[in-house]
């Protein structure tokens, strides 16, 4: 299906809701630094997520739990300096919002003030309802995140597909409707059955952005290191690799080592 694409000079939370209403799919990717964000933004991405996946791909941790609010602010401020068009959404990291709504608001204010990001994302539904309300009441846009929520990995015990059983699927649907009614501007659904994700997307008016949630939703998000093939240890079924940068970069760096060792680099034109 071809859809007329409106030319948004600057993507806002309102543009995303309009895109859903017009049937235009939303393209979102993660970025964590200035150089990458500049490339991603200039390629026409709608939303950049400064994800707490930085904990994995930037810092090498096994989970997203160790990354701190200060570290998220550092990554987000680097991204914000690079962008001209995309909406920048910043993850509230584990431990920065779960204890009470006041802490959630304080952390969100720090992100907005110190990084210049445009919105925050939190994992969870009903259990964090009061925190979401408090953040929204302060005028800060909130993106929800349901399904596989990596900050709860030690509760789940595994990264397998969520909400396959009716009870969990029903809770997810209720949570999605709750997030919409609270005033969230969009929702990420991670690693759930495609038919459930499509049903959720059709049941609410805010955009649903999927990762491992099939094609029946309003947009897609991937971790940039995964889709560029920089990380060759992670190959879930939902991932499409657009490049093989791991091997490409390794070959280039190997060639540089060879050129330096053999005194081929620098040559007569590469010096003053
Ligand atoms: O941190 C992240 O990159 C995310 C995406 C997987 C949605 O939350």
From TrEMBL:
GO cellular component terms given for this protein: cytoplasm
Reactions it catalyzes: (6R)-5,10-methylene-5,6,7,8-tetrahydrofolate + 3-methyl-2-oxobutanoate + H2O = 2-dehydropantoate + (6S)-5,6,7,8-tetrahydrofolate
Protein's name in the database: 3-methyl-2-oxobutanoate hydroxymethyltransferase
A GO BP entry: methylation
Listed cofactors: Mg(2+)
InterPro entries listed in its UniProt record: Pantoate_hydroxy_MeTrfase, Pyrv/PenolPyrv_kinase-like_dom, Pyrv_kinase-like_dom_sf
Binding of 3-methyl-2-oxobutanoate, residues: 52-53, 91, 121
Keyword Cell cycle in annotation: no
Entry keyword annotation includes Metal-binding: yes
GO molecular function: 3-methyl-2-oxobutanoate hydroxymethyltransferase activity; magnesium ion binding; methyltransferase activity
Pathway annotation: Cofactor biosynthesis; (R)-pantothenate biosynthesis; (R)-pantoate from 3-methyl-2-oxobutanoate: step 1/2
Active site: 190
Cofactor annotation remark: Binds 1 Mg(2+) ion per subunit.
Subcellular location: Cytoplasm
Organism of derivation: Flavobacterium segetis
Enzyme Commission no: 2.1.2.11
Function statement: Catalyzes the reversible reaction in which hydroxymethyl group from 5,10-methylenetetrahydrofolate is transferred onto alpha-ketoisovalerate to form ketopantoate.
Top-level EC class as recorded in UniProt: transferase
UniProt-annotated binding residues for Mg(2+): 52, 91, 123
Quaternary state and interactors: Homodecamer; pentamer of dimers.
Family: Belongs to the PanB family.
Domain of life: Bacteria
HAMAP family cross-referenced by the UniProt entry: PanB
